[in-house]
Fold this protein.
Amino acid sequence: MSLALAEPAASTSIALDVETVSHRYDVDGKDLQVLDDVSLSIAPGEFVALLGPSGCGKSTLLRLAAGLETPTTGSVREDGRPIAAPDPDRILVFQDPTLFPWRTVRGNIAIGLEARGLIREREYRIDEVLKLVKLEGFSDFYPHQLSGGMAQRAALARALVNDPKLLLLDEPFGKLDSLTRLRMQNELLDLWKSAGFTALLVTHDVEEALLLADRVIVLSDRPASIVAEVRVDQSHPRRRDDADLIALRRSLLEKLGISHDV
């Protein structure tokens, strides 16, 4: 089945530049630093994965890129312009689908278009993204009637209907069963290839990072700094039993402080 997008935008992706970013929070009057002098450049259309210990600041980096927060020091830029606020060009997809239970799948997908006043002229995009994520027969279903994988497809469709140029993914498959997770990984890869957006994925799954990303960035414990960067020079689809990927997996686990294979 072809996943080609109809009428793609002239520019389908953006460059993301994180420049000497440090970030901290005030927690009950105490200073909590979560990022420490992080610099990272992502090319338009590139797929980058972030690995690191739980709570190290990976999700904070996504929130900064989405414009939901402003870095304490340093800057985050899209195509050279400072990111100062959320924008439909930059969409954040969470681990939980966060669908509105009182809205159907179609109604949930329509939210972004409605908020932007584009529902009349771009309602056709809802049908297109429903087909893209293979939910065209479930548009009138409510969230409680969906499986976990279907709900996450609906969340992806809600993001894609806005034709984002940067898709920020915060462990989007973390709560799915293993088989559904494998299917969703393949479907995300197909969507990325088809739509051409830039992708930044937070994951704790080393294998997932290696199967999907062009580059894998390893972050330290909090406050996070970049401790390693691994480029994956293999075309898709990639095989989990590929000897080179197995070697890269072992290397990444070591960089994460796990000296034995798991």
Notes: The radius of gyration is 18 Å. The CA atoms of residues 148 and 176 lie 6 Å apart.
